[in-house]
């Protein structure tokens, strides 16, 4: 289990600790995937992080990942219905399966200018 | 008297000398003119000062006048741009909606590069707190229309293009008429209802939309409704809740961040107008200033089910005009600061009343519930900073401050010390008072209108931000 795949900066410019989310009960290592989650814009405010690494079970979809994230950061629910979801820098639907070392980006719209 | 008469004589004499020199120079110009084929002197001098907008064919087959060739030479030298790109650009028209942080650099570059017709829409006036990012405006224009200021700046850079001033807010009632006159639209606005409205308008009229946004230290950029790319609604069919839509006036923005995005908007618009390169359609650029990272994410194509641009969508001009974007997004097109009214009058006092109580020496504690970085900008003397987000856990601090205040004022203050709450504009202070009442601090009162009303009604020298 590798801790600290991401070194993150908080929105205020201060160092924010890298987080490793162990949400699922630990099973055998084969059944777990580790993905990198990137937060943008409002998602950064709501989590206080630019990203985390997340362990999910094999067969999880982007939808499952989002549910886990909202369980960990309940305030993320605010943008649940309004975001671009990108898997490895490409648009993805929530039903897509995630693979080990995938990068899931959560991109709510910015409206300022 | 006499010396004045002498001065006047000398001046008249100098005028005569200069006139003679001028006539001599004009004569020489006319002679040279004859040598190269006889263009009238006057036309020539006029065109140097203010060359005609028309792409009068100078006989080189590309329609660029000698002045244009010289002005745009560094672009013409680009093999992928060249005279073809420049002619396309000179024939194009681009509308920039918003002359703020994004619009400023976009307009400057679009004027400079020779877009044939450049439209500017904005209803706002220039303010001092715009200057750090809205770099098209100068201090001399503070209090004047942003469109007027931006147009003057564009004309100062390039007097040969057509600059059109639309000094009004873009609304469903005027958007079709304005947008129809342009080939490309740049969304440089700062609010959600405008973003949906401009996107829908571009779909209805079939215009490419170069959309940029910036807040804090992040920016986003994409081209909507262009060669198969989605519209704003394809990506965000349901508007985000108002709490998710932050504005620069609340969250802050580093000036150069919209600057970067605005420059990129100009670039994308130039590429589309001159028909070069690969536009940022179907991709979104994410700019992260703090980590110095730019990511480009492939976004979805046009949604078949989109209510506006989808296969079976029947979103007509009439429907556009009737659509209520403020209701749809639950936020106003021309945002004003939020003014909540959560508390009954008897638990609120004005800034003036608070000042009177301070002068009377009333025993009290003033809690300032703004975030710490706001408190560091400016605060009232002796106020205690407990941000709203951490208020619940810091009630003991308030209790001990109240006890301390009562002790200092001795037995004379029999009813105990009062508790006042203040914030920037008087919204969070009401939320805080509601919470304090619930937690047993039943005497808590909020100061109506916050520090802004303190600055307005009590101390005009108190800094506002
Ligand atoms: Zn659409």
Report the strand count of chain B.
13
SSE sequence of chain A, one letter per element: EEEEHEHEEE
Number of domains in the coordinates of chain B?
Answer: 2
Largest sheet of chain A: 6 strands, mixed
Helical residue percent band of chain A: 10-25%
Question: What is the fold-level CATH name, i.e. the topology of the domain at 32-107 in chain A?
Answer: Ubiquitin-like (UB roll)
Distance between the termini of chain A: 41 Å
Pathway (chain B): tRNA modification; 5-methoxycarbonylmethyl-2-thiouridine-tRNA biosynthesis; Cofactor biosynthesis; molybdopterin biosynthesis
GO biological process, one term (chain B): Mo-molybdopterin cofactor biosynthetic process
Organism (chain B): Nelumbo nucifera (Sacred lotus)
Cofactor (chain B): Zn(2+)
Task: Kindly list the characteristics that best describe this protein.
heterodimer, A: 113 residues, alpha/beta, Ubiquitin-like (UB roll), six-stranded mixed beta sheet, two-stranded antiparallel sheet, disordered N terminus, B: 465 residues, Rossmann fold, Oxidized Rhodanese, domain 1, 2 domains, eight-stranded mixed beta sheet, 19 helices, 42% helix, globular, binds zinc ion, molybdopterin synthase activity (chain A), nucleotide binding (chain A), phosphoprotein (chain A)
């Amino acid at each position: 289990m590798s801790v600290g795949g991401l070194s993150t900066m908080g929105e205020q410019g201060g160092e924010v600790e890298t987080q490793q989310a162990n949400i699922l009960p630990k099973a055998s290592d084969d059944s777990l995937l580790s993905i990198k989650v990137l937060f943008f814009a409002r998602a950064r405010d709501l989590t206080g992080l630019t990203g985390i690494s997340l362990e999910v079970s094999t067969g999880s979809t982007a939808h499952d990942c989002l549910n886990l994230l909202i369980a960990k950061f309940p305030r993320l629910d605010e943008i649940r219905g309004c975001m671009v979801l990108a898997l490895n820098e490409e648009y993805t639907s929530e039903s897509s399966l995630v693979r080990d070392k995938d990068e899931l980006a959560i991109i709510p719209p910015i409206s300022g200018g | 008297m006499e010396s004045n008469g002498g001065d006047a004589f000398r001046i008249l004499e100098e005028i005569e000398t200069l006139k003679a020199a001028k006539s001599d120079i004009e004569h020489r110009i006319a002679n040279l003119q004859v040598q190269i084929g006889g263009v009238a002197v006057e036309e020539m001098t006029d065109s140097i000062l203010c060359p005609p907008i028309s792409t009068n064919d100078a006989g080189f087959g590309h329609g660029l006048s000698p002045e244009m060739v010289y002005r745009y030479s560094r672009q013409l030298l680009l093999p992928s741009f060249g005279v073809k790109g420049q002619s396309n650009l000179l024939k194009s028209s681009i509308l920039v909606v918003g002359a703020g942080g994004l619009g400023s650099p976009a307009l400057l570059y679009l004027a400079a590069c020779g877009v044939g017709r450049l439209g500017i829409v904005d209803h706002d006036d220039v303010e001092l707190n715009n200057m750090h990012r809205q770099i098209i405006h100068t201090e001399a224009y503070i209090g004047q229309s942003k469109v007027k200021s931006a147009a003057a700046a564009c004309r100062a850079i390039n007097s040969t293009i057509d600059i059109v001033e639309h000094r009004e807010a873009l609304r469903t009632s005027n958007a079709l008429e304005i947008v129809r006159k342009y080939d490309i639209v740049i969304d440089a606005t700062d609010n959600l209802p405008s973003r949906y409205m401009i996107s829908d308008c571009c779909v209805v009229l079939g215009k490419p939309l170069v959309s940029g946004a910036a807040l804090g230290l992040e920016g986003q950029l994409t081209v909507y409704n262009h060669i198969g790319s989605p519209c704003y609604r394809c990506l965000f069919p349901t508007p985000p809740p108002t709490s998710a839509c932050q504005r620069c006036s609340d969250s802050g923005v580093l000036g150069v961040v919209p600057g970067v995005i605005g420059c990129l908007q100009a670039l994308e618009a130039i590429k589309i107008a001159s028909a070069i390169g690969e536009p940022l359609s179907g991709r979104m650029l994410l700019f992260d200033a703090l980590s110095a990272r730019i990511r480009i994410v492939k976004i979805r194509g046009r949604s078949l089910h989109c209510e506006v641009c989808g296969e079976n969508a029947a979103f007509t001009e009439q429907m556009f005009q009737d659509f209520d974007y403020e209701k749809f997004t639950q936020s106003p097109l021309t945002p004003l600061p939020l003014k909540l009214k959560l508390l009954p009058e008897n638990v609120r006092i004005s800034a003036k009343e608070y000042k009177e109580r301070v002068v009377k020496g009333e025993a009290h504690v003033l809690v300032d519930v703004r975030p710490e970085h706001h408190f560091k900008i400016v605060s009232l003397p002796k106020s205690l900073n407990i941000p709203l987000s951490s208020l619940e856990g810091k009630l003991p601090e308030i209790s001990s401050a109240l006890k301390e205040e009562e002790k200092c004022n001795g037995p004379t203050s029999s009813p105990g010390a009062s508790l006042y709450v203040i914030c920037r504009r008087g919204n969070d202070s009401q939320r805080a008072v509601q919470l304090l009442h619930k937690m047993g601090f039943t005497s808590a009162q909020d100061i109506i209108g916050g520090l802004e009303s303190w600055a307005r009604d009590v101390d005009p020298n108190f800094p506002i931000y």
